[in-house]
Amino acid sequence: xxxxxxxxxxxxxxxxxxxxxxxxxxxxxxxxxxxxxxxxxxxxxxxxxxxxxxxxx
Length: 57
What we know:
Layout: H1 14-48
GO molecular function, one term: transposase activity
Protein name: Tn3 family transposase
Pfam families: DDE_Tnp_Tn3 (PF01526)
């Protein structure tokens, strides 16, 4: 999940590159986790309203 420079790491320092990759992974995982939380809350609200839904796996 990169926003600047089309995901290109311009630093030649391997430590800086690894740090940026780890931070990117952390942000990506945080966004995924927040999406799961948001979807779960919506499904709970739908269940309270007795709207039937079926999970397709």
